[in-house]
């Protein structure tokens, strides 16, 4: 009878120190940081730098897929000329990218 009591008492005691239980949790956080958080922060910083370096005459694409040339800039908006004499205003945060040469080549092949 005492043999069973000693076996149960040994099983309920914590195995290892307190820090060894947190090592897997710490490793998971490190993996998440390098695979998810850090690249996302880097991409956000690049987008912010892109938005601050916009200037008149740049050809851009908005988040809605509208291509145009910047004719005016303010702190929060850009004025785009999307056709001759057709201008629209868009929020600066919706500017995604400068259209690349590759996308123009694909569009020319389709058209």
Automatic annotation (TrEMBL):
Alphabetical list of InterPro entries matching this protein: Preprotein_translocase_YajC
GO CC annotations, alphabetized: plasma membrane
Predominant localisation class: membrane
Superkingdom, taxonomy of origin: Bacteria
Assigned keywords, A-Z: Cell membrane, Membrane, Protein transport, Translocation, Transmembrane, Transmembrane helix, Transport
Topology in membrane: Single-pass membrane protein
Segments crossing the lipid bilayer: 19-37
Compartments where found: Cell membrane
GO BP term, pick one: protein transport
Coiled-coil parts of chain: none
One Pfam family in the UniProt entry: YajC
UniProt xrefs under NCBIfam families: yajC
Family to which the UniProt record says this protein belongs: Belongs to the YajC family.
Protein name: Sec translocon accessory complex subunit YajC
Organism listed in the record: Candidatus Electrothrix aarhusensis
């Amino acid at each position: 009878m005492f043999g069973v009591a000693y076996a149960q008492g040994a099983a309920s005691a914590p195995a290892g120190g307190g820090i060894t239980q947190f090592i897997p949790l710490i490793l998971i956080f490190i993996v998440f940081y390098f695979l998810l958080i850090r690249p996302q922060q880097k991409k956000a910083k690049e987008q912010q730098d892109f938005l601050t370096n916009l200037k008149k005459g740049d050809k851009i694409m908005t988040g809605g897929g509208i291509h145009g040339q910047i004719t005016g800039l303010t702190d929060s908006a850009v004025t785009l000329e999307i056709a001759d004499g057709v201008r629209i205003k868009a929020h600066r945060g919706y500017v995604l990218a400068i259209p690349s040469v590759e996308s123009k080549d694909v569009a020319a092949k389709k058209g």
